[in-house]
Amino acid sequence: MNLSPFEMSLLVGGGFVLVGPLFLGIGIGQARRLIRIPGRIVGYEKRTQTDNTGSITREHPIYEFADSKGTRQVTSAAGFIRPYLKVGTPIELHYDPKNPDAVQPAAFTNWGCFLLMGLLVTVVGLLVLSIALLADNWA
After folding, report:
1. CA separation (Å) from 100 to 17, 30, 63, 129?
2. End-to-end Cα spacing for the chain
3. Which site among 7, 108, 115, 123 is 20 to 30 Å from 132 CA-CA?
4. Which domain holds residue 57?
5. Reduced to 3 states, what is the DSSP secondary structure of residue 131?
């Protein structure tokens, strides 16, 4: 199946226009669900990961925060080679009441990335479609 450049542009642009709002929806859903709460770092847990190239030890922050069930401590899934925050440092967290063990620093929350990616993909798709339609009209 040979597609003309116009048909290929319609296919690519249309795909981007369809996928972009999916990313936007994911970002909006996360933004609505997550609650911003105060917390603090109460320690670090060292975890060593080994593969065929060697091993690396990362320090995973332990966050303490209060929710409707009391004070919680949760170890982050994300670790750092060198911790950049000291124990006792206050930190704003994003908390999902449906998944309280997935608390994360508000600065690292990925819903903004989904919104940005969704917007970017949608705009690129619309540009590709517009350019394809304009080029086809001029031909």
Report:
1. 34, 14, 11, 42
2. 22
3. 115
4. 35-107
5. helix
